[in-house]
Design brief:
With 327 residues, the chain is α/β, with parallel strands linked by helices. The chain contains 10 helices and 16 strands.
Length: 327
């Protein structure tokens, strides 16, 4: 038995509900490995779960879905796909990344290529998986399509915009303030708009020659849903993948039928539930990074004992881009 530090929540609420504990880590059973975490990805998904926007099945729970680490022990029975010393990353496993070490089923693990760092892997995999299913599955983006990407300065937003640009889409990124427009433009947006502008929809129509955008990717919800629907073209698709600002208002069929619009709410765990698809998508993400189509810049690094501070910064909109927790 080994005692390690972990951060859990016993109820939903603000950053103060994050509680550090000591927990025992045993030995891996068949099909499992023990990994020592190196870098933990910082995701708004964890913030939404902590606040209760996304429902959790039970408490207490150790948050965190994404991390890199080193395999320290393997099962003494059964087949092992990993060896002690392997560098691995995961982003679709059950909660539990907010700890120094953990036992994990090896089916969730991806080997990290030698030319990808632990920080890059931890920062990009979950968000890259999200960008992949948003562009290829939730709405099949084609060359020339106008895409409206809310939160273009955020972690998923930055990768989504770069990937969409590589696919030769016309990317309109939105941000919450004028000083963040440069971030959006730096991440391959052809246009950058402050979604708080009173003439937002007029700007969209001017860019699209009055037609509107083919799809909206919205992680924000309440503050952007109205202008999103007003910006859509005929047969346009509204893709929700988060509700950072609160739940979007109820959608009625009359509004949809006005332009034959489509709406979809998405979850990573529906689109990326198959280990073979996860592995193939990870390979594609790493290839995009290595070829320079996705540029990864770590905005801020937190220590393990600063996770609560990291959540406070996320909640107060003091973070943009890709951020990590170094264990």
């Amino acid at each position: 038995m080994e005692i390690v530090k972990a951060l859990l929540i016993e109820k939903t609420g603000g950053p103060e509900v994050l509680k550090q504990i000591n927990k025992n880590v045993g030995n891996p059973k068949e099909g499992e490995v023990l990994i020592r975490h190196k870098v933990i990805g910082l995701n708004r998904y964890d913030l939404e779960c902590r606040k209760g926007i996304r429902k959790l099945a039970k408490f207490p729970v150790i948050l965190g879905r994404e991390a890199t680490g080193v395999v320290e022990k393997v099962s003494t029975t059964g087949n092992n796909n990993f060896r002690v010393g392997d560098r691995v990353v995961y982003c679709t496993a059950p909660f539990g990344a907010y700890c120094e070490r953990r036992i994990i089923d090896q089916k969730y693990l991806i080997k990290i290529p030698d030319d990808i760092s632990d920080e890059v892997a931890a920062a990009v995999l979950f968000k890259g998986m999200a960008a992949h299913y948003l562009l290829y599955r939730a709405y099949r983006a084609l060359p020339g399509a106008f895409l409206l990407v809310h939160g273009a300065n955020g972690g998923v937003g930055q990768i989504l915009c770069q990937w969409a640009n590589h696919m030769k889409c016309k990317v309109i990124g939105t941000v919450s303030s004028d000083d963040k427009r440069k971030i959006a433009m730096h991440n391959s947006c052809q246009y950058a708009i402050n979604y708080n502008d009173g003439n937002f929809v007029e700007q969209i129509m001017e860019i699209t020659n009055g037609k509107g955008v083919n799809a909206v990717y919205d992680p924000l919800g309440l503050v952007t849903s109205k202008i999103s629907f007003e910006s859509l073209s005929i047969f346009g698709v509204y893709v929700s993948y988060g509700q950072i600002s609160g739940a979007a208002p109820n959608i009625n069929l009359s509004m949809l039928s006005s332009r034959s619009l489509f709406v979809t709410g998405t979850s990573m765990h529906h689109y990326k539930s198959n280990i073979f698809e996860i592995a193939l998508t990870a390979m594609e993400i790493f290839a995009m990074v290595k070829r320079g189509y996705i540029r990864v810049h770590i905005n801020k690094r937190y220590r393990f004992d600063e996770i609560k501070k990291a959540h406070e910064d996320m909640e107060n909109s003091q973070l943009s881009g890709l951020n990590v927790i170094v264990v």
